[in-house]
Write a structure and sequence with these properties.
Residues 32-96 are annotated as: Disordered. The chain folds into three domains: 1-50, no CATH class; 60-72 and 88-295, no CATH class; 314-404, no CATH class. Helix 7 packs antiparallel against helix 8, helix 13 (373-385) packs antiparallel against helix 14 (391-404) and helix 14 runs antiparallel to helix 15 (408-419). The chain has helices at residues 30-35, 101-104, 114-125, 131-143, 164-168, 173-176, 249-262, 268-283, 292-300, 328-339, 344-349, 353-368, 373-385, 391-404, 408-419; strands spanning 84-85, 109-110, 158-160, 195-201, 216-220, 230-234, 243-246. It is an alpha+beta fold. The strands form two sheets. A five-stranded antiparallel β-sheet has the order 3-4-5-6-7.
Length: 431
């Protein structure tokens, strides 16, 4: 991609925000070049990306949510002397990526074992990954040796992100070491700490692929040290609802593949992906229709919460969880009335806040009697409601609940997410 489409219309005279991908931009959509400026390819400095934010939904300024700067140069090794390997010379795979995708492949990967990678991911994101995560990366390298993160773009429209950024070298200890902000990396508006995004829709995928822009897939684990998470999905532009998809990433991608075909998105690349997915899964005895873990979890859910996927806490002899004093419907109605007031001062003084304060007092009693699930449920509900006025209460409740439940790492995640909570799609916290 030696030339960029010319900027047209009135936008040509305006100073445009810099493209988040900088010199590594691989997009071809003309609209993208109307909305973002791009540095000359010869430019070597890393430029700050635009961070989408909404003044209506967050009180943070853009400077508070600026992603970390990747200080690493291409030929430089980090403090742990991680070795890197160069781009593969095999350009003859069936899933030959676009010319622009080859620019991304210049980001080289550290050579580590899956165990070493898992330890690194846990150090950066505070959770460990299941075996199917690493197996899927190997599968994607088979489909697209030069650019495994984009192996699904031309067939399904998905780009691998989040923990996969560690495998690719996009995220490393150097650019992740900045006051925990990396914990908000690819964290969509309604993703609770239990939700870890690993696949997002690539906006510039084939026009025939019909996917909502902010639809995303991720692992969901009820405890930070759970190494058998399930796969879920969410579209924050529609609602906070989290839907269970499958037991593993292969099964989830297979479901998305079948869904895509049912929407009339059939193409040669999709057929090839299906063939290779089935073959690879069979070789490693991976069940691509597995939903046993999802079904078992459903039976353990204490309360559905606003996101409908619910919370799970251990209850022993009726100790561990107690119900909120109001139904989800009544609670939402109260929150709606409070949020509809003109400003935060009015909201704080509203008599409606007495219901919220009463619930908070009941939660204190519940905590004293070890029914920690009540605080978790109310905190998740306030988080899912999404209005910034309730962020402070949500953070207090969730950090408290996660601490009492020995899920402290989730407390660190929610703390960073609410401090850097943003709407939209461009949610990477690194350049």
């Amino acid at each position: 991609m030696d030339s960029k489409p010319e900027k047209i219309g009135v936008k040509a005279n305006k100073k445009l925000p810099m493209c988040p991908y900088g010199v590594k931009c691989y997009r071809k959509n003309p609209t993208h070049f109307e909305e973002y400026d791009h540095p000359n390819k010869k430019q070597t400095k890393t430029l700050s990306p635009l961070v989408p934010s909404s003044s209506k939904m967050t009180s943070k300024t853009s400077s508070d949510t600026t992603p970390f700067k990747n200080k690493r140069k291409i030929d430089e090794t980090d403090s742990n002397s991680l070795k890197k390997f160069s781009k593969s010379d095999d350009d003859n795979s069936f899933m030959n990526q676009k010319e622009t995708n080859q620019i991304d492949s210049k980001i080289t990967e550290p050579k580590l074992s899956s165990v070493e990678f898992n330890n690194l991911i846990q150090k950066i994101f505070l959770v460990k990954m299941p075996n199917d995560f690493f197996q899927f990366w190997e599968f994607c390298k088979k489909i697209s040796p030069n650019n495994p993160q984009n192996a699904l773009v031309d067939s399904l429209g998905f780009k691998l992100v989040g923990p996969f950024d560690v495998l690719s070298g996009v995220v490393n200890e150097e650019n992740a070491n900045d006051d925990d902000k990396i914990l908000a990396h690819w964290r969509f508006y309604y993703d609770p700490p239990e939700f870890q995004t690993f696949a997002v829709v690539e906006p510039d995928s084939l026009p025939s692929i019909k996917l909502e822009k902010c639809y995303h897939l991720g692992y969901f684990r009820d405890e930070p040290d759970d190494n058998q998470p399930v796969v879920v999905s969410n579209d924050p532009e529609k609602s906070c609802i989290i839907s269970g998809v499958a037991d593993n990433i292969f099964a989830a991608i297979y479901i998305e593949l079948v869904k895509s075909k049912s929407m009339g998105n059939s193409n040669d690349r999709l057929d090839y992906l299906e063939e290779q997915l089935k073959s690879f899964a069979a070789s490693f005895k991976i069940d691509i229709k597995a939903k046993d873990k999802l079904n078992k979890r459903k039976k353990k859910v204490n309360a559905p919460t606003f996101n409908k996927f619910g919370i799970v806490v251990e209850v022993v002899k009726d100790v561990g969880y107690r119900e909120l004093p109001q139904s989800d419907k009544n609670l939402k109605s109260t929150l709606d009335k409070i949020a509809s007031l003109d400003d935060d001062e009015e909201r704080r003084k509203s008599k409606l806040m007495s219901d919220i304060h009463q619930t908070m007092n009941l939660i204190n009693y519940a905590n004293d009697e070890k029914d920690f699930g009540m605080a978790l449920e109310f905190g998740i509900d306030l988080f899912c409601y999404g209005h910034p006025f309730f962020h402070r209460a949500a953070k207090h409740l969730l950090c408290q609940a996660y601490g009492l439940l020995n899920r402290n790492d989730f407390g660190r995640i929610i703390n960073q997410h609410l401090d850097n909570r943003r709407q939209g799609y461009e949610l990477s916290m690194v350049e």
